[in-house]
């Protein structure tokens, strides 16, 4: 990604799922941990399901293009779950016979795939997704992959004896093959979704960031590498029960400081829902920040004026070429109408702050 003396725009990854593909809404899709995706494929048959997923991905790309978003994804429309879509395609994983585990610091439980052997690469996973996005996107095409620490938190370990570091390292070595294959196809922007880094800062410093860099070791000059670290998807049912489920945003300062010395190029963080104190952006040094200014848990559309104000606050601590405006996280829980309007205003806000 070439440095440009202006503020860019991007989406983090996911986009709302259309009803003609899924009968579930965004929250229930997340909670299903990929089961709803598998059931729908069985109901429709592989060919029809693939056709509808192409249609959904193309619609997501077109919405971003119409809004004028600079860095585009396919909305991750082909993914039942952003982690398991990848993990279940690796050797050493039993995706069929799942096991109930506690995740995200004990805030949730899920039926997770079991790790029954050494995690290794089996073959291409998202190459077709990237090629589809690049073919149809007018902006730069980005592809997302789950980060090692988050993978280690989402699986039932029956092989590594609780050694999350080794599990994460083996995953990183496996995913390195996919990263290399993506770059060979011309992919220039690869994002690792690793929100668990923010939940366990001691583990992040001890081995999490090392595992992350291992995913693209030796490829640093051939692509732009992004890490997304949010506090967690919005969860209204847990909020209504008074259950605290978000990662502690006070950890951001340390994480950003460590990442300022890493081999990553861009750090994506949540900023809207938590009303993040943007003065911490100075901790990122020369890295680019993809700042969440769109609340993905609320359908109410942010005004252009409020987004401009937020961007200008960030620009007190970063030059324009180090700022990308984005949603807090994936937009899967929003309605498509809300998501479209939010992206349109995001683009208008970037245009406003870029005017001389």
Describe this structure in words.
The longest helix is centred in the N-terminal third of the chain and has 22 residues, at 46-67. The two termini are 23 Å apart. The chain has 356 residues and is of the alpha/beta class. The chain has helices spanning 26-32, 35-44, 46-67, 84-87, 127-136, 148-153, 164-184, 196-199, 201-214, 236-240, 252-259, 304-314, 336-354; strands at residues 8-9, 71-72, 91-103, 108-120, 140-146, 156-157, 189-193, 224-229, 266-269, 288-294, 323-327. The mean pLDDT is 92.
The Cα radius of gyration reads: 19 Å
Order of helices and strands: EHHHEHEEHEHEHEHHEHHEEHEH
Q: Return residue spans where pLDDT drops below 50 for at least 5 consecutive residues.
A: none
Distance between the termini: 23 Å
Give the spatial strand order of the biggest sheet: 1-11-10-9-8-7-5-2
Shape: globular
The helix fraction, in percent, is 25-40%
Largest sheet: 8 strands, parallel
Tally of strands: 11
Query: Given the helix and strand composition, which structural class is it?
Result: alpha/beta
- Look at the structure and give the mean pLDDT: 92
- What amount of the residues lies in strands? 15-25%
**Number of alpha- plus pi-helical segments:** 13
Task: Walk me through the topology.
Elements: E1 8-9, H1 26-32, H2 35-44, H3 46-67, E2 71-72, H4 84-87, E3 91-103, E4 108-120, H5 127-136, E5 140-146, H6 148-153, E6 156-157, H7 164-184, E7 189-193, H8 196-199, H9 201-214, E8 224-229, H10 236-240, H11 252-259, E9 266-269, E10 288-294, H12 304-314, E11 323-327, H13 336-354
Parallel strand pairs: 1-11, 2-5, 4-6, 5-7, 7-8, 8-9, 9-10, 10-11
Antiparallel strand pairs: 3-4
Helix pairs in contact: 2-3, 3-13, 7-9, 9-11, 12-13
């Amino acid at each position: 990604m070439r440095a440009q003396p202006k503020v860019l725009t991007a989406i983090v990854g996911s986009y709302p799922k259309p009803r003609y593909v899924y009968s579930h809404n965004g929250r229930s899709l997340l909670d299903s941990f990929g089961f709803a995706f598998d059931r729908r494929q069985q109901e429709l048959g592989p060919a029809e399901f693939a056709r509808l997923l192409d249609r959904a991905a193309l619609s997501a790309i077109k919405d971003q293009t119409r809004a004028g978003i600079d860095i585009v994804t396919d909305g991750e429309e082909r993914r039942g779950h952003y982690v398991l879509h990848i993990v279940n395609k690796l050797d050493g994983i039993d995706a069929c016979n799942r096991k109930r585990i506690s995740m995200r610091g004990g805030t949730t439980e899920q039926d997770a795939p079991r790790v029954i052997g050494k995690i290794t690469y089996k073959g291409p996973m998202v190459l077709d997704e990237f090629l589809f996005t690049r073919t149809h996107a007018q902006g730069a095409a980005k592809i997302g992959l789950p980060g090692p620490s988050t993978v280690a938190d989402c699986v039932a370990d029956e092989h590594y004896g609780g050694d999350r570091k080794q599990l994460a390292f083996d995953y990183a070595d496996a995913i390195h093959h996919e990263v290399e294959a993506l770059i060979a196809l011309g992919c220039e922007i690869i994002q690792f979704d690793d929100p668990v880094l923010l939940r366990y800062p001691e583990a992040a410093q001890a081995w999490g960031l090392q595992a992350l860099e291992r995913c693209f070791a030796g490829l640093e000059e051939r692509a732009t590498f992004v890490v997304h670290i949010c506090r967690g998807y919005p969860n209204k049912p847990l909020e209504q029960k008074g259950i605290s489920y978000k990662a502690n945003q006070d950890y951001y300062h340390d994480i950003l400081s460590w990442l300022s010395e890493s081999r990553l190029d861009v750090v994506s963080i949540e900023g809207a829902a938590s009303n993040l104190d943007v003065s911490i952006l100075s901790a990122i040094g020369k890295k680019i920040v993809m700042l969440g200014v769109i609340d993905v848990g609320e359908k109410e559309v942010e005004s252009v004026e409020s987004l401009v104000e937020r961007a200008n606050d960030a620009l007190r601590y970063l030059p324009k070429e180090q700022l990308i405006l984005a949603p807090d996280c994936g937009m899967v829980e929003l309605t498509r109408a809300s998501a479209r309007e939010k992206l349109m205003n995001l683009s208008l806000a970037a245009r406003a702050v870029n005017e001389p």
